[in-house]
Amino acid sequence: MISKGCEQCAKGGKMVLFVYGYCDQRDCFYCPLGENRKNVTDVYANERKVEDDEDVIEEAKRMSALGTSITGGEPQEAMAKTTRYLELLKDEFGEDHHTHLYTGITGGRENMRRLSEAGLDEIRFHPPVELWGDMHGTEWEEILYIAREEGLTPAFEIPGIRAEPEFLDFLDEGAAEFCNINEFEMSDGNYRRMQEEGFELQEGHMSAVEGSKDDAILEEMASHEKVYFCTSVFKDAAQHRNRLKRMAKNIRREFDEVTDDGTLVYGKAFTEPDQFEALGVPEEFYTVKSDHVEVAWWLLEEMVEDGDLAEGEIVEQYPTVDGTVVERTPVA
Question: What's the predicted TM-score (pTM) here?
Answer without folding.
Answer: 0.88
